[in-house]
Amino acid sequence: MTAGLHPGFLLFVVACAAALTSGRLRQLIMLAGTAFTCYCVWQLSPEASWTFAVPEHTLTLLHVDRLSHVFGLIFSFTAGVGCLYALHVRQGGEHAAALVYAGAALGVVFAGDLITLFVFWELMAVASLFVIWYGGTARAQAAGQRYLLVHIFGGSVLLCGILLLRAEGADLAIRALTETDYRNSTAFWLILIGVAINAAIPPLHAWLTDAYPEASTSGSVFLSAFTTKTAVYVLIRLFPGAPILLWAGVIMTLYGVVYAVLSDDFRTLLAYHIVSQVGYMVAGVGIGTDLALNGAVAHAFCHILYKALLFMGAGALIYATGKRTLTDLGGLARAMPVTLVLYMIGAVSISGFPLFNGFISKSMIISAAAKDHLPVAEFFLIMASIGTFLSIGLKLPYFAFLGPHRDLKPKPVQPNMLLAMTAGAICCTALGLYPEWLYHRLPYNASYHPYTVDHIVDALQLLLGTTVVFWWLLHRLHGEPAVNLDTDWFYRKPLRLVFNYMITSARQIGIRLEQVRLHLLATLYPYLQNPFLPSLQLGLQTRRLTADTPYNADTHRLPIGATILWVLIFFALIVFYLLL
C-alpha cells in the first residue's frame, strides 16, 4: 500500500499540516507524519518509480536503489528525531520550513534525473534559508542573506552545467560522469563546482560555518544533517573516483579541525567539524573503490547520527544557560549530568572510539586509502581524527562541563530534548556494537571487518596519546574571544566595497534623473495646457516658451475650423474604406 508513496511529498504534507495547526495536535502530526515517512522509506522497493512526461524529457521523481534507500532511511529518521527535539518550539513556520527542508533532501536522494534533482536542490536551499532566519537574531538575518547569495551562485553554476551537458547531447539520467565521454568537459566541471559548494569544500565552505551557528537550537539539528550529505550523495552518484576529490577531502579534514581547535563559540566549533567529517566522505568518493565508496556512505549515515546528537547537546547548553561560548561556560557537569553523558556518546562516536558508530565508518575510508596505496592521504586522515578528539571529545566537554565554575544557574532542559538525544545516543551505540546492520545495506560489493586487533589497538593508542597531549597543553587550549578570519573574508570585504559603490552610484543616478524630470516638466508645462497646439507652432515656439510664459487664448488655442477639418477627414476615410 505504501510502496509507491514518495517520502519527500509526505513530508511536504506534514509541513503544511504543522503550519496550519498548533499545540498538541501539531506535535502529534509531526511525530506521526515523520514516523509514517520512515515506514514508507523502509517499505520502498527497487521497483518503485514515479515518472512525469514533459516535452522531450521524462522526469523521474522517484528512483529507488540501494544507495538512495540507505540515504533515505537516515534522512527520514533524522527528520523524526529533529521534530521530537523541537516539540517545545511554538513557531509553526519553523517546523514547516524544517520539514520542507527534509522533504526536499529526500527529493534529491530519490531523483532519477538531473532536472528533478536540481528542482529539489533549490527547494532545499530556500527551505534551509528560512530555517536559518528563524534563529530570530540580527546575526541570523545577515548570515541568511549571505547564505542565500552563495547558494544562488552555486545553483546557477549547477544549472549551467546541466544545461550544457544536455546541449552536448547527453541525456539527463543520473549516472557517473567520470565513466562517460563528458568527464573532462566544461559541463563536468560546472556541475562539480555547483555540488562542491553544497559539500562545503574549501574555499567554498564559509557559508556553512557562517550560517549554521546562527540558526535556532532546533534548526541547527536539521541543518547539520541534510545539505552537505545530499552533496556527498550526488558526488557518489556523479563523480566516483575523481582524483581531485581525494585531495580536496584530505584538505577538508585538516582545515576543519584546525579552525575547530581555534573556535570559542561551540556551535561554530561543531560547524567546522562538519567540514572536517564531510572531508572523509569526499576523500572516499575520490578514492573510488568499492570499499571507499561504502565507507563514504557509511560515514555519511553515522555522521548524521552523531552530529545531530552533538548539535542537540549544544542546543541543550544554550537553552539551559543562554550562553554559546566556552569562555562563558564551566562547571556544568553536576547541574546537567544527563546532557553531559549523552553529549559524550556523540563525542566518542565522532572521535572513532571502538564500540561506537564513528569507528565502524571512518576506519573504512582510512583502510581504503591504505589498500589503494595512498600513504600520504592515510596519514593526514589519521591526523585529522586526532584533532577531532582533541576539540570535540576533550576541549569542549572539559571547558563546558568540567572547567572552572561560572556561577551559572541553568534551567532544566525540556524532556523532549533529552528524549531525542537519547534516541540519537542509542543509535550511535547500537551501530557501533552491531555494524552488520548497516554494512548489509551498503550499495557496493565490498566486505569489511572493523573489529580486528590492529584496528582497535591503533585507535586506542591514538586516543590515549591525544588525551596526554591535551592535558599537557590544557592551559593553552582555553578558548578566547577572537575573530578567526576564514576564506569568506576574501569575498565579503571586496563585495561590501562593491555594494557600497553600487549604492552610491545608484543614488547619484537617481538624483540626476530627478533633475532631468523636473527640467522636462518645466519645459513641457505650457504645452500640457494646450494639447492641440499645432506641431508647427510647437516647433517654432519651443525655444522661447517657458513655464513663465502667460497663457494667451488667441495664440494657444486651436481654431474651431481645424477641429472640423479633422472630423471631415476622418469621415471621408471611413466612407472611402466602405466603398472599396
TrEMBL record:
Record's keyword annotation contains Transmembrane: yes
Record-linked InterPro entries: ComplexI-like_HydComp, NADH_UbQ_OxRdtase, ND/Mrp_TM
GO-annotated biological processes: ATP synthesis coupled electron transport
Subcellular location: Cell membrane; Membrane
One of the record's GO molecular function terms: NADH dehydrogenase (ubiquinone) activity
Membrane-spanning residues: 67-87, 96-112, 148-167, 187-208, 244-262, 269-289, 295-320, 332-356, 376-396, 417-435, 455-474, 558-579
Domain (NADH:quinone oxidoreductase/Mrp antiporter transmembrane): residue spans on this chain: 111-380
Any one Gene Ontology cellular component term annotated for this protein: plasma membrane
Topology in the lipid bilayer: Multi-pass membrane protein
Domain of life: Bacteria
Record protein name field: NADH:quinone oxidoreductase/Mrp antiporter transmembrane domain-containing protein
Originating organism: Entotheonella factor
High-level lineage: Bacteria, Pseudomonadati, Nitrospinota/Tectimicrobiota group, Candidatus Tectimicrobiota, Candidatus Entotheonellia
